[in-house]
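Memo to structure team: turn this sequence into structure tokens by end of day. - J.P.
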Amino acid sequence: MIFPFFTKAQIVQVVDSITNKPVENAVFYCNDKNSISDKNGFLNTAKFDSQDVIIITHVAYNDKKILKKNITKLIKLSAKTNFLKEINFNEKTNIYTSFEGAQTIIPIDYINSTSPSISEILKAQSSVSIQESQPGGGSPNFRGLEANRLLITIDGVSLNNTIYRSGHTQSSSSINPFFLKTINLVTGPSSVVYGDGAMGNALIFNTTGPVKENISRHHFNQNYESSSNTNILNYKANYHFKNLYFFTGFSIKKAGDLSMGNNRMHGYEQWGKEINITEKNEQLKTNYWRTDFIHKTMVPLENKKSLLFNTQFSTSSIIHRFDKLNDVSESINKYSQWFYGPQKRFLQSVSFFNNGNYIFHDKLTVLLAFQKLTESRHVQKTSSNAITNRIEDLMIFDANLNLTKTFDLLEINYGLGGKQQLVESTAYNQSSTNYYYASTRYPNGGSVAKDLFLYSQISFFVNKRTKMFLGSRYNYNVLEANFKPNESFSFPFNKILNKNNSLINSILVNYTLSKNLSFNSCFYTGFRNPNVDDVGKIFSKGNGYVVVPNVTLSPERSKNIEFGLNAKIAKFIKFNIQLFATNISDAISREEASLNNDTLFFYDGDSLRIQMNKNIESAYIRGFNINFITEFSKNLILNSSANYLIGYDKDKNPLAHIPPLITNLNLKYLGEKNIYEFYVLHNARKKFEDYDEAGVDNIEEATSEGNPSWFTINTIYTRKIDDSLSFSLGVKNILDTHYKLFGSGLSSSGRNFTVSLHTYF
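Reply from structure team:
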């Protein structure tokens, strides 16, 4: 009776000092004795003697020494702030996603306190740039690839869909950062793993899930931001009932009108002060609200099997398109209304996990997912007494099977799957008393896109210093778009049937010269199938052109090459350098065109020049990324990074989506109860002549010389009051600098005081 009691008394739990979350794989050791914490943070210290000095280590946390007899039931570790650079396997599919030095894992728990949106997180913590047309959105740009050329997934399910456009997309704004566990910025051979849309890299979002432990954990968080009078209330909890484990979260956000900066160091006194929609520094009609909900249920089964049910829902108020409402024609507002309807996203997925030593796999994952998305655009010209409403409804079905088999020196990952996407596009004009016909944005007879794929990857050690990864993927795609007769225009076809297949490959080599120096290099191909937005869209940006369907589009294809160096100098300086190049063949680009030998098309009451999406000959992107981490001590750490890109099409014209030089600097002090952070964000100038000719980068929203350079100085203080309560105070853009993010129609926030309160129990 005494022995089991004594053993249980020596069970301790390792947790994060800020969030109190369990820390898995923390190593306790003293001489030849060691013990490792499980996924719930628990381990047994019975093997250690009372006078042993135990060293506690973990790759993401600072080392800690403690005398065995002084150990309590709860051990708290303080996290390192440097980004993890390591081989990473996707949690849901157990498949290889990146390689050492080419992936940044952002530790969400340490940036949520004053980062109320995905855009804020990516802008402040990575080399990803953001485009904003309204504060309720944010289009990420990673290494010059944006919108439908940049794959975004949430919990293993792709957000990219068949109406993702080539301009700027705001879909990532439907992901709530408070629910996230990690954001993975994946480079390397991502297309082999993720497929359509991963031309060179991908953004992988993973939400928090149920914890298999018989205790409940609750987390309340409330944020306030002064520059937009924003209030955010967040809640999430882990709890259980018998052998079922749950995770639930909800969030409510209400934002007022956004105030821009007042310090115009760029010298353009009126830039951004749109007379028709600003009052002093306040940008009108930038207010909005949104709500988010998530629930997961984990069902353990026998023999290392389990089921995970994942439900997500998000919706918003209407979101005004600020960069349209500031348009003026002949000294009067061009639009009296231009707004997006509520952005709704529903996701339901079921995952089956089977871990065990079988003939064909050690790990098996089956993922079945359903998404229902609704988005709409509502436009009324000042000269019209009617508003035009265009609504898009999507239903998306995913089915994936992924397997992993490990041998002594070899690991094989392989799988297959399919996707079906249904698009219904409707439209109508509405006056005060009547409803009548309007043209749809996408084919009015409905559209369907189907994908089937197979992939495989193998990894093995060539020798003790060199590891190689080889992969291939085959994809077959069919897109059908149907056009019904309508009152506004006619095409010389009533149906588009587009069939494509793609075979892509990758090879990657990691070479470790010493524990302080390693190299990596890889070559990989990627692809993006033309979707309904490319093939069948009919719309006008209001610039004198109208985009009409093209029945002959083929997939965009990319060839990518990367070289990387990871090094550690002395004991406190680490740096990573990545050189990369992307060549895009058959790039889809908006070009002038004709239809039935006519270069003009009558659309929404105007006679406009015709443009089509066409496969141009080629385009290329070149660049580098540098990261430095200087650890002055275990508590004081300096991070700095720089990201530079160039991009041109086949005629040496500037390519769209190429941001200017981006540099970041972050100095952080980590104490046991206090965290001090000081960081600087900087963007270089984007010259007028470096903008794309098609107008994708919104040159009309820049100055006569382009987008001026800018920098902001920011600071955050976090105080842990006790184990259940902490708060953060911050000042962003301390100098109240006026600036616009590259490609944006909205001026960014001016001086912004932030307050955040966290409660754990």
